[in-house]
Amino acid sequence: MSQYVAPTQTMRFIIEDLVGLENIAGLPGFEEATPDLAAAILDEAAKFAQEVIAPLNRVGDVQGCSVEDGVVRTPDGWREAYRAFCEGGWSTIGAPAEFGGQNMPKLLATAVTEMVQSSNLAFSLLPVLTDGASAALLTAASAELKQKYLPKMISGEWSGTMNLTEPQAGSDIAAIRTRAEPADDGSYRVVGQKIFITYGEHELAENIIHLVLARLPDAPAGVKGISLFVVPKFLVNDDGSLGERNDVRCVSLEHKLGIHGSPTCVMAFGDQGGATGYLVGLPNRGLEYMFIMMNEARFGVGMQGIAIAERAFQQAQAYANERVQGRDAVTGADNVPISAHPDVRRMLLLMQTRTQAARMLAYWVAGQFDVAHAHPDALRRERARQVVDLLIPIVKGWSTEVGNDSTHLGVQIHGGMGFIEETGAAQHLRDARILTIYEGTTGIQANDLLMRKLMRDGGERLMLLLAGMHDDVESLKAIDDKAIAAFVPRLAACISVFENAAWKLIDRARSDVGAGLWVAVPFLTLAGVACGAWMWGKAALAAHRKLGEGEGDAAFHRAQISQAAFYMAHVATQAEGLAATVVEGLTAATEL
Amino acid sequence: MSQYVAPTQTMRFIIEDLVGLENIAGLPGFEEATPDLAAAILDEAAKFAQEVIAPLNRVGDVQGCSVEDGVVRTPDGWREAYRAFCEGGWSTIGAPAEFGGQNMPKLLATAVTEMVQSSNLAFSLLPVLTDGASAALLTAASAELKQKYLPKMISGEWSGTMNLTEPQAGSDIAAIRTRAEPADDGSYRVVGQKIFITYGEHELAENIIHLVLARLPDAPAGVKGISLFVVPKFLVNDDGSLGERNDVRCVSLEHKLGIHGSPTCVMAFGDQGGATGYLVGLPNRGLEYMFIMMNEARFGVGMQGIAIAERAFQQAQAYANERVQGRDAVTGADNVPISAHPDVRRMLLLMQTRTQAARMLAYWVAGQFDVAHAHPDALRRERARQVVDLLIPIVKGWSTEVGNDSTHLGVQIHGGMGFIEETGAAQHLRDARILTIYEGTTGIQANDLLMRKLMRDGGERLMLLLAGMHDDVESLKAIDDKAIAAFVPRLAACISVFENAAWKLIDRARSDVGAGLWVAVPFLTLAGVACGAWMWGKAALAAHRKLGEGEGDAAFHRAQISQAAFYMAHVATQAEGLAATVVEGLTAATEL
């Protein structure tokens, strides 16, 4: 297994030079996020992730979790690492100051989260889920619930879960059956079974705050009859101290392909008569609240795809530089490291440039989150929110596919050793496999992209995105640089192919929804490839600017331009085929 | 876990109507392979695979193998199943009558092998490796060695292994260090360590015949100094009875990502002074003999990719038809099976049509093997051999990538359940992961395709292949059928794009080998996609003919034409992007 080294140079390049930390730090409330502080936070986070969390990655895979009498045992070292995580304040970076957070921009918090995820995906799910639960409470809970739960969730003393799935209700939340009956004291008695609950039970935090979707008596059928409840593992007294154990327990753990270190629980609510729960927001609005949170959660899973792709890349690169095998086909030199072989270099660059493309897109979206949250101009906030809405399914859907492809290539680069578990490459492949599934499969992201993000507003969000793409292409065309000029036609073609396919798809889906859904995933892939090409265009612009200013690491900036060219030749080239599938697939759908 | 059901209708369609069993059965020596006998063999093989071998697939995964004091324990039921396999004569189908085989065409033997592989990939490796070892002896061994070993290997009483890899010599066989010293009695003392030896030790067969690559004293360095030896686990007396235990043992087993039921051994030869071995053929010609066998072995691994893809498809299809979830986006009907959702149907069809494309290509190549082996006309034999040589790296490289993609999609269709080991979908993903690696990685197949199969003869083999493709396109154009006419332009474009990219690549690689190797894998993928499209064109031709004759299952034949159309829209469309990568990637190589 290779050591994880946080790619801070690339991260800072994206944050500072591509997205523009200065602009974000200029927004009200983010004044403290200076480049110096940002650099310090990234360096400290890198150290913590590399030294404390990364070494537990394999331990977690090998030991996994176990449950006995409802008590879940996590792998060795997990407890100490989680304590260090909380004590270091790593759970508070992006959280609001009002509840004890550091109120840093999401742009910065995202990079920190990526490091934790790259170090140890199974471990990272605990704070990520707590963040998601906090976000739901921030959005929808009463002041009283917020005050009672948020400070300790943000500090990490208590963790959070999301309880959506039931055996008959996976992707289809409308089928939820868990019930909540009102009690005399204003609370509710929650009864039902939930499955696939990540960190549903453990002893790393003092309390676990379950957010549970359930139906009130006489609630309307379907998605409009689902409410959201807080169900704490231990009831919380008015003074904030822990009260009695609630009627909720872990029945069993799943035996999974990967992320063994994170317990995936079957949870029973109300076996002893009813778990005490508290309604969040208004009745029957649970799904709406979950959807707000889901944007964050889907962004977070997209980041997991990028994080595992980075980890797999580093592992493969280390192996390829170390492993001596074969003869250089060009020079004839014997016993070269396999990274000298063209196809191994190609695979490494494919991993590297797609991972960075997905990362640039995600960080750029994080910057738009910050604008949507904090910009003083309402129109700017609204536009940023629209772009975020449009890009979330692409960040989630495409980055997780990139994560899977990269871990697959990572094993391939190792040859036979990649198939041996001790090597560590196979764990990344196994861990990554859930990412295109949870928080909505790739098919569901594609459905969301087409039906909600493109169709509902008649393409308004899409035009906003395309305007940004075209602006950057024009800027690139204006640059006098041979290396950049060589790839701009491919970039422009890629974006234009994406644009045409999008309008054709929207037009066709208006009259034939089934045909549209039939090619929604190829379209999402096309969108990811095109957004990635756009981001590499932005990277080349930023690198060219830095080179012109004579600032920073020139070799790094030149490599950015070369890698942009690689991406255009090896990835952006796929746009036409994907667009052809979107258009020709529409026809074929009617005949099968 | 779903039941495996051998796809005999599709297999017979390919064997009889697409490849043309009649022509193969008309070759000298294959007269017994009548359609009736072929159908009977396929039905019996299906029954055996489904009832005896398939039920052990999960047992093998869960139990795996263990070793104690050099004795390897295989999973429960393995021994009984292997005995039944041998007693049923399943090991003898394609083997020469001279040594007890049934001398059936490879076309037919391939379908039987696919069934065994689909049922239980880990189990199937034992007979497949024995076949490979037998093929090497048939090619190169003396009459005496053949007579001594082949009959019992072909009957399955003894199994075979291939011992190539050493810790420092994986893909690079030139680096082999195992030594063989001549002894006074004409035998050799073999000393060295081999790794990744599949079924290197077990107690399913009475004896294990190891084929070992080693160096004679004073052998030239590199690949021209490697010789091939037979090293039996038990020495064989002149009367054929077993003698003393040879100095070879299993030191340890690998802990692998998949195919847990097959023991992957570290083998020590000569720990007690030297294992007794016998030279096969001439000194220093070992690699050449291995290469002859490797064609067969690579074809066999390509078949494994198809077999696991079929198994994953069946599992996903069964789940998608059973699992009720969500609303039909078109009709609005509630609680439909997920196979009604357009994206799930798309994924199922992608699995199905790519798997069949790869199968048609492999079976067609098997038919060419038979022609190369048995045709009375030397020119016809030679041409068939050339086409086989050209297509083997595509069958191996592309079918195994299809196998990996399909098992990935198979998990995806299961949603969260796919990530749970008990479901069985994850096992296929894990099992498939070795297929793009062993018997030469995809990169090595691509290298072989470009350097040996395209460059060496100045494109002669390629022209032979293209002529066949163009003939079939012309035949399709002449057909008056709306459904076929709709996809022929895409097929023609796909083949033409492949052809142009091939000539450009050959031309460029002549002056710049490194640039050629840089895009060899995208070119191999392009070749696979184009050959698949060609085969679907052949399928449409055959189905149209059957429909015209009013023969057979009309619904099946119409579905073949629809599926051909799906493949063109969803897979053949990718050819242009791949070709663009081959051409533009050539340029980008020089700058990185």
Number of helices of chain A: 19
Largest sheet of chain A: 8 strands, mixed
Helix content of chain A: 55-70%
Structural class determined from secondary elements of chain A: alpha+beta
Roughly how many Å is the radius of gyration of chain A? 24 Å
Give an account of the 3D structure.
2 copies of one chain form a homodimer. Chain A is of the alpha+beta class and 592 residues long. In chain A, 58% of the residues lie in helices and 11% in strands. In chain A, the strands form 3 sheets. In chain A, strands 3, 4, 5, 6, 7, 10, 11 and 12 form an 8-stranded mixed beta sheet that branches. In chain A, strand 8 and strand 9 form a beta hairpin. In chain A, helix 6 (106-119) packs antiparallel against helix 10, helix 9 packs parallel to helix 11 (378-414) and helix 13 (442-455) packs across helix 17. Chain A is globular and about 80 Å long. At the A-B interface, helix 10, helix 11, helix 12, helix 13 and helix 15 of A face helix 10, helix 11, helix 12, helix 13 and helix 15 of B. Chains A, B: Residues 478-591 form the Acetyl-CoA dehydrogenase-like C-terminal domain. Chains A, B: Residues 40-157 form the Acyl-CoA dehydrogenase/oxidase N-terminal domain. Chains A, B: This is Acyl-CoA dehydrogenase.
